[in-house]
């Protein structure tokens, strides 16, 4: 569940430093290298995610 929790936070747009804090890790390298999992394995799935990210309004 820990891996899923951390991965879902990251994919929900929570910044890595906040996820690091919530996970209780000393640094974000642990969070990103060990716990964050690749959610999209097929290139066509990834393209949709990246394309969607560029069409999001920028927060002010």
UniProtKB/TrEMBL annotation:
Alphabetical list of SUPFAM superfamilies matching this protein: DNA breaking-rejoining enzymes (SSF56349)
Name recorded for this polypeptide: Tyr recombinase domain-containing protein
Keywords on record: DNA recombination
One GO term of the biological process aspect: DNA recombination
Ranges of residues in domain Tyr recombinase: 1-51
PROSITE patterns, per database record: TYR_RECOMBINASE
Gene Ontology MF: a single term: DNA binding
